[in-house]
Amino acid sequence: MAVAEKVGVDRRGNTLYKRSPDGEEIKEIVEWREKRELKDGRLITKHYPVRDRVVDDDLPVIAEKYREFRQRYSEPGQ
Q1: Beta pairing partners, 15
Q2: Rounded to whole angstroms, how far apart are CA atoms 71 and 78?
Q3: Per-residue pLDDT averaged across 49-75, rounded?
Q4: Cβ–Cβ under 8 Å, residues 66 and 3
Q5: Which has the closest alpha carbon to 14: 45, 53, 48, 46?
Q6: For the whole prediction, is pTM greater than 0.70?
Q7: Which of 18, 21, 47, 50 has CB atoms 3.0–4.6 Å from 56's, for a disulfide?
Q8: Is 11 exposed, middle or buried (0-12, 13-18, 19+ CB in 10 A)?
Q9: Which of 11, 27, 9, 7 is nearest to 19 (CA)?
Q10: Residue 65 is inside which H or E element, if any?
């Protein structure tokens, strides 16, 4: 059974971000998309690499580990 210590928000609903041991926020490069409509009505999308903060959430890791476990072991009774 997995217990998630961090789920990305605190008790008040404020977003929590991962921090290094010295307290700095950890940032990673993500792709940011910007959609613009030109004067002639065409829609274009531009992609930019942006450094963004990482949400401190254990749930995606727990879900992935559970999927790996299910691939190795079948469900009981089947």
Answers
A1: 9
A2: 14
A3: 91
A4: no
A5: 53
A6: no
A7: 18
A8: exposed
A9: 27
A10: helix 59-72
Helices (H) and strands (E) in the chain, counts: 1, 2
Q: How confident is the model at residue 3 (pLDDT cuts 50, 70, 90)?
A: confident
> Residue 25, SS3?
strand
The token duo for 66 is 């559970």
Sign of CA dihedral 2, 59, 74, 69: negative
Express each pLDDT in 28-46 by its tens digit. Answer: 999 989 888 888 888 888 8
Residue written as tokens 């609903």?
A: 13
Q: How far is residue 64's CA from residue 9's CA, in Å, rounded to a whole number?
A: 20
